[in-house]
Amino acid sequence: MINRLLAITLLSSTLTLIVTGCAVKTTSSGTPAPTAIPVKVMKVGSTTNNANLSGKIIVDQQAKVFSKVAGKVTEVNVKEGDLVNKGDLLVQLDAFDSGNKVIQTQSSLDTLKQTIVQTKIALDYAQTNYDRTKALAEAGVVPQSDLDAVNTKLKTAEAAYEQAKAGLPGAEASLALAQSAVQDASIYSPLNGTVTEKLINPGEMASPGVSMLTIVNMQEVLLQVSVPQDKIFQVKPGTPVEVFVDGIDQKFNGTIDFISPVSDSTNNTFPVKVRIDNTSAVLRVGMIARISLDSMNGKISELPKSSIVEQDQKYYVYKVDKDVARLVQVELKEKDSNWNYVINGVANNDEIVINPGSQLTDGVKVQIN
C-alpha cells in the first residue's frame, strides 16, 4: 500500500514538472511577451563627394562714375590705384555758368514773389472798393455805371494776382534746376573702393552718361562656380566653404551667397556664388579659384531604395534602436535607380531595416538576423 502511494506521488510530481516546463513565456506583469520580428539591417555609411568646383573671382561692388551734366573738367582728384571712401570728391567741373544761372533765377524768383505781394494788395483794395460801391449803388447813391467800373477793376486785379501766382512753380523749378547743375558739377564717390580705371583729365569735356572713372570694392569678392545637377542639392545658402587659389599658399573662408534657381542652358549646371572676405587684399578679379564639396558638407549618407517607406508623399525608414524599430522621416535626393542620398534624418552607423515587410510598424520589437 505504501509503495502504491509513493508511486502515485512521484507520477504527480513528474506531470507538474512537465506542465511547468511547457508553460508560455510571460512578462513580469503576467502578459505574454511580444514576439520579435526578424529583420535584416545595414549600417548607414557615407560617401565622399570628391567634387572640386572651379570658377573665377568676380567683383561684388563696382561703379562706373559719370557726369550728369556736360562741362569742362577743372579737377581730377584721383589716379588709378587710389583708395577712396564714399562721398570723396573725385572730379570737379567748371560751374561758373551754372553759378550765374543760379543768381539769375534766384533774382527772377525774388522779383516774382514781390509781384505776388503787390498784386495781392491791389486785389484786396479792389475788393474793398467794389464792396463799398455796391452798397452805395443798392442805396441809389451812385449810378450802376460806377459799380460796373469798379467791378472791371476787381476782375483785372484778380487776373493779375492769379497770373503772378501761376508763375511761381516754374520759377522755383528753374532755380532748383540751376542749383542742381551746380551740385552736379561736383562728382563724388558712390562707394568705398579702389580706382581701377581713369578716363578723364583736367581740361577735357565731360559728357552726360560717359564713364570717367571705375571704382571697385575689393573688401569682399565673389567666386562664381557651376554646380552639376546631381550635386546642387548639397549646396545651401549660408553654408561655410573653403576656397583655394592656385599659386597662393593660403586657404580662404567663404560662404554660399547665391544659388541660381535656373540652370545654365548650355551645360545644365547651376550658377552658384561664394562670398569671400578679402580684407587682406590678396585676391584679384579674374583669378581662378576652387571649392570642394567635401569642405562644404563633409560626407553624404546613402541608403538603398529598398529601405524607404513612403507614406502620404513623405519618406521614412525604420531605424533599429535597442531592438525596437522606430519609423523616422528622412529627406532624400535620388542618386541612381537603386540608391538615394540622405540629406536629413539619419546619422552614420544608424542601423536601418532593409526590405521592411508589412508586418513591421513603429515601435515593434525586432531581432536582427
Walkthrough of the structure:
The protein has 369 residues and is an alpha+beta fold. The chain is 29% helix and 37% strand. The chain contains five helices and 22 strands. It has helices at 2-21, 96-138, 144-166, 168-184, 293-297; strands spanning 37-43, 47-48, 52-66, 71-76, 83-84, 89-93, 186-188, 193-198, 205-206, 211-228, 240-245, 251-259, 269-277, 288-292, 299-304, 309-311, 314-321, 324-329, 331-334, 339-344, 351-354, 366-368. The strands form four sheets. Strands 1, 16, 17, 18, 21 and 22 form a six-stranded mixed beta sheet that branches. The protein has a six-stranded antiparallel β-barrel with strand order 3-10-13-12-11-14. A hairpin with a 4-residue loop joins strand 19 (331-334) and strand 20. Helix 2 packs antiparallel against helix 3 and helix 2 (96-138) runs antiparallel to helix 4 (168-184). It is elongated and about 125 Å long.
The quaternary state of the protein chains shown equals single chain
CATH superfamily of the domain at 52-56 and 215-297: Efflux pump adaptor protein, beta barrel domain
What is the fold-level CATH name, i.e. the topology of the domain at 52-56 and 215-297?
Elongation Factor Tu (Ef-tu), domain 3
For the record, give the distance between the C-alpha atoms at the N and C termini, rounded to a whole number.
58 Å
- Main sheet makeup: 6 strands, mixed
Annotation, overall tally of beta strands = 22
Question: Which spans have pLDDT < 50 for at least 5 consecutive residues?
Answer: 1-28
Family: Belongs to the membrane fusion protein (MFP) (TC 8.A.1) family.
Domain Multidrug resistance protein MdtA-like alpha-helical hairpin: 110-176
Keywords: Signal
Domain CusB-like beta-barrel: 223-295
